[in-house]
Amino acid sequence: MWTWxxxxxxxxxxxxxPVLLVATEAGGTTLxxxxxxxxxxxxxxFVPIGRGNWDSQERPSWVGIERxxxxxxxxxxxxxxxxxxxxxxxxxxxxxxRYGWR
Length: 102
Known about the structure:
single chain
């Protein structure tokens, strides 16, 4: 599932970061990775996921796996869309490979 969380800069602009929720921890927090429409080609830290209804402009998107965010449910602003199983599995496999999670 996609959602938006505040950028960590908290500079008052009210801008939110789109993230993909990838796991829920026992304490109720959620692990998430950032979504971007900035082209990243075949960069190892970015998983291409193509276009989807999470982006109103229907731009190609990538998921950055170089940072994993811990998000409290109250920090989630709004739900956007669900990612289909095939694309989610590609992202999950890339994260598991990078961090050794299984």
